[in-house]
# Entry
Amino acid sequence: MPNSSAAALAGNKSSGEIKGKSFEAFKNIFKYAAPHKLTFVGVFVCALLGISADLLQPYLVKIIIDDHLAQGKAEFGFIALMAGIYLGITFISFLFTYLQNNLLQFAGQGIVAKIRKDLFHHISKLSMSYFDKVHRGSLVTNVSSDTETISQFFTQVFLSLIRDGMTLVLIIYFMFRLDTTLAWYSLTILPVIGLVAFMFRRYLRQAYQVTRSRLSRLIGFIAENLSGMGLIQAFRQEEEQTRRFNEHNQSYWEGNMREVRANVLFNRTFDILGNLALVLVVWLGGMAVFHHTMEVGVLYAFTSYIRQFFQPINQITMQWNTFQSTTVSMDRIWKILSTEPDVKDPLPDHQTVLKADEAHGKVDFDHISFGYSPANPVIPDLDLHLDAGEMVGIVGTTGAGKSTLISLLNRFYDVNRGSIRIDDIDIRDIPQQQLHRLVGLIQQDPFLFTGSVLDNVRLFQTDISREKVTEACRYVGVHDMIIRMPQGYDSLLSERGSGLSAGERQLISFARIMVFEPRILILDEATAHLDSQTEQLVQNALQTVSKGRTTLIIAHRLSTVMHADRILVMKEGRAVEEGTHDELIAMHGYYEQLYNHARQATEEE
Ligand SMILES: Nc1ncnc2c1ncn2[C@@H]1O[C@H](COP(=O)(O)OP(=O)(O)OP(=O)(O)O)[C@@H](O)[C@H]1O
Ligand SMILES: [Mg+2]
# Structure
């Protein structure tokens, strides 16, 4: 869609650099076509046979006219035979064109499905730092419409090149076979066609790009409006938004009309040129027939070929647009496919296996330092050690770096300095898949997938039994809520669980953790959405789940962390105070302030 924006981006770079990259992109995307080599050979053969059959027809008529009718022979049997052959050829043309189209679609769609699959797989492996930089909407475009453009390349552009290219060559061949002089005359029109096509092509491409970008703006506007509908109605923005929508709609309409006009003009101009050429042939050929230097049948065949001459040229120039967008799409897709994730799995001979059921859960942050950008360290230097099975609470100001610490333990990002170890193994040496089974994370806004409640709890792992899921849900107190839903555990959740309250979503994610039983449990503001009664329920469940597990609880509410074995107070990426609740109160520091503040608030209530 945003071809124009990509073109604008490309405009910032030197054209040499772009050309080199385009070539690399082309080369690599074309590798996807390699397994379909044989199919493409099949397409080529079918196209050749189909086109030959098509183009033989006028020649056949010429034979009938010149060799029989014009000579006054009355061989009805022969003419009937020729008519039969003509019909047979029509059938052959139909058969091979059908085959050729099917084979081509088979290969083209196969190639694109594979690209789409690889692209999605690759994107899901990229590091969080990548998603911080790249607009997610544009990734959606890459996976959906850019791959579609590439599909058009393989199914339309490629077909046009084969089919129309061959048609042209064969027509020219037949014309020269029939009459060399007339063929040369006909070819004089070629430069004119070339010039017209070139001029229109530029204009059409521009018009096409304008419409595309207007359409993508329109779609973006609709999507934004739909997701913000509540706000729009609450602030009575309906009129204003409708006015803005009409503006987008109108400009898209105008763009479309411009494109349509240009298209019609282009095609008609081509028709006129075609008719001019026909007039030329009839005039010159007619004179020749008149002077008996040419047979009538030859003239007939010639006029048929001249009519068919323009169609392929028209087609090929029209495909130029698609070809241009394909280069842009291929560049963009290759750019994603060639991006290496910042966070890499250890090499097979460097990795250490740490199975979830064998790990103890000792965690060490050894003087780590980290910043999302190197110039701006969020955690300058932090040294924190958690014993296996210990429960540690973290409190601190907003933006202190608490969630960042958790992201580092999950390896969403890698530390800049120092190291994080689990059971004395650097987490960079543990395959990420194992690490994520080891560490269970519950965030403030849990992510629910489109699917049943059951599958959301067991994360689509069908080897986890329904009983285990219900048990976990009972445990965190969400079972009653679930069975009240129309289909119970099989109720479908849509779009991130939009039909549930924030607290209900939260409880489902608690059940998820209970099912997966990670060695290390992390809660980042996980109880913030729950009322105090439900929180108490979850606290109780948590006491049991966290038994024997290393647990890290981040919370603004002190009541959540008060009972932890140890509490860490963070401020600007540093641990400023540390100890049990009582020890911290006795310190008369930041924690005591927080505590007094919270107590005051509850008393006022
Ligand atoms: N993806 C990111 N890219 C750049 N900066 C970020 C990113 N995420 C967080 N930050 C910055 O890092 C700092 C620490 O953020 P973090 O989310 O760790 O704070 P926090 O302690 O969890 O705060 P809160 O209590 O509000 O959740 C903040 O200044 C924030 O602006
Ligand atoms: Mg946070």
